[in-house]
Design brief:
alpha+beta; two-stranded antiparallel ribbon; 7 helices; 6 strands; 15% strand
Length: 231
């Protein structure tokens, strides 16, 4: 019977971990930063055949908020653009030209993607969606745990009270640990969203300050011919 409990413990841990992995994957597609896993859903159709993005392109991450996508074959550039657009229409796209390394060689092009800014509306949407995914993750974990408890009713009747108590504590420990990990991932994502929002506010304020400075410079500028009229 101990072997049976060990098997069920391992099985429960795998199921709960799987739900946490799914939760993490879904959050990575709520792009604040340029997460490599966000490109996993991207598929590219070339001549009627479906490929993963990494099969047809080399991907670089120059900073935390952007991707450079270099087609392995320039003929597939538009197919790649279409594939990324289907998976992430929110990405900002810029087509860049790379000069040929050798004289007389052909220039090539690649696509530069930046993550959309986290303004007030997007911040609200990201927070709400993240919390929804978290709620679904916990619900799935609760269901898996409840299902296990139902299956254990009969096996428990064949075990000593002490062994039953130890088994229950073991299952509860696995369950609590998974929920703690789920809650931790939620908080990390919410923090990331808030950081993205603060970054947006900072950049927006800097842009406003630059525009204000330009306006002031225009206001205090003088035209020599006009000044001469008053002298």
């Amino acid at each position: 019977m101990n072997n049976y409990i060990s098997f069920e413990t391992i099985d429960l841990a795998k199921k709960l971990k799987g739900y946490n992995m799914l939760f993490n994957y879904r959050m990575s597609n709520l792009c604040v930063k340029a997460e490599p896993t966000a490109l996993m859903p991207v598929t590219v159709f070339v001549a009627g055949t479906e490929y993963n993005l990494e099969d047809v392109a080399n991907i670089l991450r120059p900073d935390d908020f952007s991707f450079d996508v270099y087609p392995k074959n320039q003929n597939n550039l538009q197919d790649i653009i279409t594939g990324v657009l289907d998976a992430h229409p929110e990405f900002k796209m810029e087509l860049k030209t790379d000069k040929a390394e050798m004289e007389g060689g052909a220039d090539t092009q690649h696509v530069f993607y930046t993550m959309p800014p986290v303004d007030k509306d997007r911040r609200k949407l990201l927070n709400e969606t993240t919390k929804l995914f978290h709620k679904e993750c916990l619900a799935n974990q609760d269901l898996a745990y409840a299902d296990l408890q139902a299956r254990l009713v009969e096996p428990y009747t064949q075990m000593s009270p002490q062994n039953v108590d130890e088994a229950r504590k073991g299952f509860k420990k696995v369950y609590d640990k998974a929920r703690e990990e789920c809650d931790k991932m939620l908080q990390q994502k919410l923090n990331e969203i808030e950081e993205g929002y603060q970054r947006y506010l900072h950049e927006d304020n800097e842009l406003y300050a630059e525009q204000d400075t330009d306006d002031n410079e225009m206001e205090i500028s003088h035209d020599a011919e006009i000044e001469a009229l008053f002298n």
